Amino acid sequence: MTKLELQYEGKSKQIFRTDDEGKVVIRFKDDATAFYNIKRAKIENKGKMNCAISSMLLGYLNEHGVATHYVEQVADDEQLCRVVEHIPLEIIVRNIIAGSMAKRLGLEEGLEPENTIFDLCLRGEELGDPLINDHHAVALGLASYDELAKIYEISAKANLLLQEVLAQAGITLVDFKIEFGRDAEGNLVLADELTPDTCRLWDTATGERMDKDRFRRDLGHVRETYEEVAKRIANVLK
Ligand code: TMP
Ligand code: ASP
User: Fold this and answer.
1) What is the pTM of this model?
2) What confidence score (pLDDT) does residue 238 get?
């Protein structure tokens, strides 16, 4: 595999073409942004830590029946991934109430509902990733009802697998965001990162935040926290 030119650059990742049309290299940057770019910083080592964390978790999902775009880690901060047709929807899975759900509904962070909550958001910064529902997604032509049902099914399975691994690392999976794509055969593929940028992770023993909320809320020790998450997951999965 040879890495070719930069194809796309986002806030926290770059995507490079490769000599294989069906694969891209995703590079994780040290940049952190929150609140739609209002808050920005570089967090030293974040790219490498996020690449390591995402590679371990996506590799684990691949091996346990959840198809993802991840192929292999090719550098400290780079992954080789399959090209998929991206679906511009964000699925947020919530095990514990926190963040925007707590705010929107006036609930205390930390409440544990008996059911798992699935939010569907339209991906698009101009509108602020608005919360939508299945009917909106179908009306917008983004996915069929059948695909949405499968997306929730895969998301629920990923949630159980991730909760199990993270629990062994002493980490509680509060919530996370994932996106999907379709492969050449039309199969749904989890095509996203799984990192402390996109998951809420709480230390099971202390309740300490171990994710991007440390950056969003100025809690300090951002770099050390990402390093600790990577270390703990490696202890379980490597
Ligand atoms: P929220 O509480 O802001 O809705 O976020 C829920 C989870 O989804 C949290 O773990 C962060 C993640 N997330 C993203 O990764 N990207 C996003 O654009 C948003 C809104 C949330
Ligand atoms: N969508 C949010 C932003 O752009 C993501 C976050 O806060 O993590 O800032």
Assistant:
1) 0.97
2) 83
